[in-house]
Amino acid sequence: MMNALQSSGMLAAMAPQAMLAVALGGTLLSGILLKDKAAALARAIAFAGILAAGAALLAGPLGPSVEAMSRVDGAAKAWEALFLLAALAFLAVGRLPGDRSIALFLGSLIGMCLIAVADNLILLFIALETMSLPTYLLVHGLRPGRRSLEAAVKYFFAGAAASALFLLGLAVRYAATGSFSIETADASAGSFLGLALMGSAALFKVGAFPFMFWLPDVYEAAEPEFSGFMSTAVKAAGFLLLLRLLEGHSAAAAALTDWLPALAAGPMTFGNLLALRQKSLQRLLAYSSIAHVGYLLAATWAWGAQGGSVERLDTLWFYLAGYLFMNTGAFLFLLCTGVRDADALRGFGRRAPWLSGFFILMLLSLGGIPPTMGFLAKFFVIWELIKAGGIWLAAVFALNSLAALGYYLRLVRLIAFEDTVEGTAQAPAPAGAGALAVMAVCAAATLLLGLAPAVRDILFASFFAG
Question: What is the pLDDT of residue 430?
Answer without folding.
Answer: 56
